[in-house]
Amino acid sequence: MFLLVRRAAAVIAAGVMVSGFAVNGGASAQTSAPGEAGALQAATLREAAEAKGVFVGAAVNNGRLGDGTYSSIASTQFSSVTAENAMKWDATEPSRGSFNYSGGDRLVEFARANDQQVYGHTLVWHSQLPSWVSNGGLSAGDLRNAMNNHITNLANHYEGSVAYWDVVNEAFDEDGSRRDNSVFQRTLGDGYIAEAFRTADAADPNAKLCINDYNIEGINAKSDGLYNLVRSLLSQGVPIDCVGFQSHLILDQIPSSFQANLQRFADLGLELIITELDIRMRLPADAAKLERQGQQFASVTRTCLAVSACAGITVWGVSDRDSWVPGTFPGEGAATLYDENLRPKPAFNGMLTALGGTTGPGPDPDPASCTANYTVTDRWNSGSVVRVTVTTGASLSGWTVTFALPAGSVTGSWNAQVGQSGTAVTATNASHNSTVAVGGSFSFGFQTNSGATYTPPTVSLNGTACAPA
Ligand code: G2I
Fold this sequence. Notes:
By secondary structure, the chain is α/β, with parallel strands linked by helices. The chain is 30% helix and 27% strand. It has two domains: 7-354, TIM Barrel (Alpha-Beta Barrel); 367-468, Immunoglobulin-like (Sandwich). The chain has an eight-stranded parallel beta barrel with strand order 3-4-5-6-7-8-10-11, surrounded by six helices. Strands 17-21-14-13-24 form a five-stranded mixed β-sheet, with no helix packed on it.
């Protein structure tokens, strides 16, 4: 269970840095206890991340939760969820003073049911605003009231449910100056950021309060601007706890100064989160690009683990089918851990292994790689005995083997439960042979009352046809 911890003061005063966080360093030490190390065969991202003392999250689109594969990946692989859109201003306060929490509440329920943390996104952002805010018609006093009222209502409503808030999102331009196309910046001036954090802190003193931005992963003009702002906020005692590095990255262009940049923010005493990770590429994807993408997801993961204040990594979208990238960058995509059919990509394996896990049960990383040997070991006029041996290219925790035989022919079985419905024969694992390692085999047998079935049928493992062996 994730507990919300009252904010430790992260203060920088007169050049003295006070670090309140040793986020992943402390927890990973706990997992290296003797006896535990061998047990760390984490097969899911969330198990592996937990063992390292970090969270691993996904941006979730409520509209996709009805898809069983999507929701099972979202719940089993991730320990944190961020609402991709449901907690934004246009969704939560479409008309002034009228709040709609239905989408955010649905995600909070999902997280509660799956023992996940909720990362709140986002309170104050120049984009995805309802027109009554974005049209610039409000006076400074009125916009200030509207901003504070929005923050207060959201933070109050989700108090106790949300562990982090992106209080202010994307406040900077690329040159490190304040974003001038923000209605908040234009109307309220520089002070709106400190005010937003103070208001959020008053409404929910326990949530960790972050400033979040993109293109700030490396050391550059924009991250310099943010760094200077954060240092100044801390020196004024503004309650800011964390910096979110969105990390919408491009294949083969991972900033080389990523770790050094995280470290300088960590040295201010702040927690760091990689909040919206994806790594996009020119389409079509091919094996070489996907392989490099896997290495680069691994490298970003290692970067977070190398900085003890880095609390977690959230990927922006569960699968390539859900990703914002193709809609925004025509001709680019394939930016997430799972492909369009929700099959894990090398990116998934890269992230998992960087977290210290190994591929295992859960989505099958290579469903096509099985072979099956179907041998009639004995035969007589009205029956035969058959042994089936399957070798798998993926590790299994439970298996189902299917093939066709003339109706009604199976009469007995061993090392599997074998049943028949019409011509469809289904064999499921026995309890002693449910777990099979990558490259491992299992065998089972049965008796048939049909002397005519001597030609091996096509054998499928978990729905995928195996090559004959
Ligand atoms: O743009 C990528 C992300 C950059 N950082 C802040 C994030 O909040 C942002 O997320 C994206 C969502 O992934 C998109 O799903 O924000 C976009 C809006 O700026 C989201 O797209 C919007 C579409 O543009 C709308 O047409 C649509 O109505 O999603 C809306 C809700 O589905």
